[in-house]
Amino acid sequence: MNINMTLIGQSITFAIFVWFCMKFVWPPIVSALEARKKLIADGLAAADRGRHELELAAKRASETMHEAKVKASDIIAQAEKRAMQIVEEAKGAAKEEGDRLIASAKAEIEQESHRAREALRGDVAALVVAGAGKVLRREVNAQAHADLLEAIKNEL
Amino acid sequence: MSAEAHTSTEYIKHHLQNLTYGQHADGTWGLAHTAQEAKDMGFMAINLDTMGFSILLGALFLFFFHLVAKSVATGVPTGLQNFVEWIVEFVDSSVKGSFTARNPMVAPLALTIFIWIFLMNLMDLFPIDWLPGIATMLGLPFMKVVASTDPNATFGMSLTVFALVIYYSIKMKGLGGFVGELTLQPFGKWGMPANLLLEGVNLIAKPVSLALRLFGNMYAGEMIFILIAIMFSGGAVLAVTGGVLQWAWAVFHILIITLQAFIFMTLTIVYLDMAHQEHH
Prior knowledge:
The structure holds two protein chains of two kinds. Chain A is mostly helical. Chain A is 90% helix and 0% strand. In chain A, α1 packs across α2 (146-155). The longest helix of chain A is centred in the middle third of the chain and has 131 residues, at 6-136. The relative contact order of chain A is 0.03. Chain B is mainly α. Chain B contains nine helices and three strands. The longest helix of chain B is centred in the C-terminal third of the chain and has 41 residues, at 236-276. The radius of gyration of chain B is 22 Å and the shape is globular. The chains are: A mainly alpha, B mainly alpha.
């Protein structure tokens, strides 16, 4: 219980301990604690950001889906319209084709009847000439009356 | 220590005497073998047990904390690092709570004080005769295990803190500011002698109260352990009672040693904070 040199020895020891603690113990531990605090804060912030981004993405996704639906129904409507158009066009073309066929058939019939009539006319002329020749026999010269016969043939 | 070899008084005195090395009255250097011899050595003597235990414990503390500081990782802490970080954060929050200025020395100082005092106090929980018993076997006349029951240790710390208080007072306020603080309040410049008396007592009371509070608490606690230990030689009933009492007192003492370490640390922080404050 006597005060002696121990007092000074203890003071020096204490000072050395404090110096050592200040130099080699405190700073690394505290800086590690600070670093971890920052790490955790960053992690939490990142998680927050991630959640926010997820929300945004979900919203974007639903928007895109909606857009796609609208577009799809547009496309369907357009396709229906186009299909109807195509049907109409086909109908028109078919009608036209039919008309054309009818017209050409009519023309052919006309032509055919014309040809038949020509042939008939020739036959009648020949028949008339033959008849007349038979009637007239000698008096009628086929060559001399060719002009006349021709005129008759044209009249038929 | 048996009752036959020592009376109770001798037993108590033996436990309260430091192992002192110094110059004997006849001029030779050596260990003091009686309390009187230790007293006669005067100031030029050293308490080997106080120095030894305090340095050992302080080195132990710094060794483990330095071990952690070297390998400290920012990832998930484990084991010792966890424990060390817990203490460091506790001290750090204490310092941040009561120290408003910026000084990188205060927090390490507080940590050193807290752990060192705690460890020195903790030696009190060792059964009181173990280490002195071993010392006796080794031929050492005395062995006081708890360094903080030696006023040299507590005053050594409190005076170092006091020196820091004065140093920072002068550094932050200037010599004039510090002297002014001592002489110009609370009564203004015409009450200078009264001011000086009041503020001087106020100033001196800081290291004295710091040291004596710790010393007194630990000394009294140690004394109670000694008194309980005397019961062991008083028959079976007393011995069993003593055992129960010792256990109860040890449990209670855990609170005291932690509290004393904490108080010393907190007051040191507060005193240094006051030293950094520009006054009123």
